[in-house]
Amino acid sequence: MELLTLNNGLQIPALGFGTYKSELDAIITAIEEGCSYFDTASYYGNECDIALALELSHIEREKVFIASKLWKSDMGYDNTMKAFSRTLENLRCDYVDVYMIHWPRPNLVLQEWEALCVETWRAMEELHSQGKIHALGISNFLPYHAEIIMKNCRVIPSVAQFEFHPGHLQAFALEYYRRKGIQVQAWSPMGRGRVLNDELILELAGKYHVTPAQVCLRFCVQEGVMPLPKASSRERIRENLACMDFVIDERDMSRIENMPPLGWSGEHPDRERVKI
Ligand SMILES: NC(=O)c1ccc[n+]([C@@H]2O[C@H](COP(=O)([O-])OP(=O)(O)OC[C@H]3O[C@@H](n4cnc5c(N)ncnc54)[C@H](OP(=O)(O)O)[C@@H]3O)[C@@H](O)[C@H]2O)c1
Fold first, then answer.
1. Using a 6 Å cutoff on CB, does residue 45 contact ligand 1?
2. Does residue 192 have its Cβ closer than 6 Å to ligand 1?
3. Disulfide engineering: 139 pairs with which of 42, 48, 100, 222, CB 3.0-4.6 Å?
4. 78 C-alpha vs ligand 1 centroid, how far in Å?
5. pTM for the complete prediction?
6. DSSP letter for each residue of 123-184
């Protein structure tokens, strides 16, 4: 698997495996098929399953990368320390590769969310300096949220995760993180399936003799964005990994970049969930 080098020197695979709502069997299958980067979160309630999947697969901890996220209600210095300990207990290991703040605001009413982010980050920096977190990250941070961290941190984020797929690129955020040298990760890289029937994606799947899912994932990879597809069956897991085996030409990349908006999850860091 191709590797990406983060701004702190850590190398991670160019494609990960999303585990939101994943069953234990799917995680085991993903390990068997060669996935080595697992994106989880305390909120997903499946950190224990990841530990169990590694144990049942007889795979050493150092052979895989695990990313987890701090939930909204656990923000703040002391809470972060406690939540991180629980994550380590669940994962049955003594470090995580990447640890992120899941959302910048704990809720939409708290005015002091900026101070809370800074305090949370301070705790994460401490855990990082103790070697318990190998790279720090932010998830669902728009550039103006990220600036709060950038202006107040000792350790800058290595990873930024947000919703990204054909028809929903959040180009302003992508550009910002590229300029800062922060690796972008795509959540919902296939738009939870809604992108797969788009006429351009179908046309390109035909042209390159691949599947619509592979077009979406390959598009992310060529944008320098690390996709985190979630899949349940062995066939789909294999199919998704095989997106590394072809290349979309420049003209078609540009056509995808400029296609009309194609819907999104409705989840926004500064709004109630938008009904779509
Ligand atoms: N940071 C955040 O706030 C945040 C938010 C959302 C998600 N995430 C992360 O991003 C990961 C992926 O996002 P997501 O699950 O929302 O969306 P996604 O990966 O775009 O879509 C997953 C859906 O696509 C289906 N699928 C997978 N491979 C396929 C293929 N080759 N052909 C056709 N359909 C396929 C899956 O079905 P089956 O499972 O039935 O195979 C599932 O229904 C999550 O698991 C999580 O790790 C992070």
1. no
2. yes
3. 100
4. 32
5. 0.98
6. HHHHHHHTTSEEEEEEES--HHHHHHHHHH-SS--SEEEEE-BTTB--HHHHHHHHHHT-EE
pLDDT of residue 167: 97
Q: Calculate mean pLDDT across residues 173-202.
A: 97
Residue 107, φ and ψ in degrees, nearest 5: -165, 180
| Pocket lining: 5 vs ligand 1, CB cutoff 6 Å | no
Smallest Cα–Cα separation from 155: which of 126, 198, 131, 177?
126
| Short-list 235, 262, 264, CA closest to 30 | 235
Q: What is the pLDDT of residues 12-37, one digit of tens each?
A: 999 999 999 999 999 999 999 999 99
The domains of the chain, with CATH numbers, are 14-189 (3.20.20.100)
Q: Which amino acid is at 151?
A: K
Per-residue exposure over 179-194, b if at least 16 CB sit within 10 Å of its own CB, e if not: eeebbbbbbbbbbbeb
Among protein residues, the one whose CA lies closest to atom 14 of ligand 1: 188
Contact of 182 with 158, CB cutoff 8 Å: yes
Q: Does 176 participate in catalysis according to the annotation?
A: no
